[in-house]
Amino acid sequence: MSPALFGIADYWAFVLAVWVFLMIPGPGNLVLIGSTGKGGVRGGLAATAGVMAGDQLLMWSAVAGVAAVLKAAPALFAAVQWLGAAYLVWLGLKMMRARAGGAPALQVRPRQYFQQAFVITLFNPKAIVFYMAFFPQFVHPTQHQGLLTFGAMAVTVALITLLYCVLAIALTRLAAERLRASPIYGVWLERVAGGLLLGFGIKLALGR
């Protein structure tokens, strides 16, 4: 068997797993698309930075042993679940009440794109599962190189996330003009996104 690259078990499988993880529909994709649609490229890039920061915090928390702590303290894990679920449900309901000409649930002020994307990523159920459970499985048990291994994984995640988000921003911008020309479409898009966020929140609360 060939040596694990940087101590990562099957590096290219890890790369593919991260890409697939990003493509799965979820709150992170919704906030990225919403930020780009309402704030343009700058809004999308700010949201991208928020997503990347949230991912890195979750990953290094897993490295620091937060996963083991949560596993050993079910009450703490439940609290994290309920906190994330409550935030997603609240945001989902707010978006579902969107009306033409009304204030959007996803804030349009540039200073809030980063914060919103960061918080949503931090409580994103699929991100929590990936970094706290799935992610550690790519650490090679015998060829692990400590911080070098985790550092290589962190850089890989950051670069793939940046590439994915830039592509998502470009695709969103292609549809932005049409949404601006027909505000009602934007309202319904926000309502549908809100319904999805509500579903994610309920799923997280149920622990499924």
Main traits of this protein?
208 residues; mainly alpha
First-last Cα distance: 36 Å
| Largest β-sheet summary | none
Helix percent band: over 70%
Overall pLDDT, averaged? 75
Stretches with pLDDT under 50, minimum 5 residues:
none
What's the number of domains? Answer: 1
Helix-strand sequence = HHHHHHHH
Give the assembly state of these chains: single chain
Instruction: Name the shape in a single word.
Output: globular
What's the gyration radius in Å?
18 Å
Figure out the total of helices.
8
Q: Work out the strand percent.
A: under 5%
Strands, count: 0
Structural class: mainly alpha
Overview of this protein structure:
This protein is mostly helical. The chain has one domain (11-206). Helix content is 78%, strand content 0%. The chain has helices spanning 11-23, 27-63, 66-72, 74-96, 110-122, 125-134, 147-181, 183-206. The radius of gyration is 18 Å and the shape is globular. The mean pLDDT is 75.
Write the layout of secondary structure elements.
Blueprint (H helix, E strand, L loop, with lengths): L10 H13 L3 H37 L2 H7 L1 H23 L13 H13 L2 H10 L12 H35 L1 H24 L2
Helix pairs in contact: 1-7, 2-5, 2-6, 2-7, 3-4, 4-8
Summarize this, please?
The chain is 78% helix and 0% strand. The chain is an all-alpha fold. The N and C termini lie far apart (36 Å).
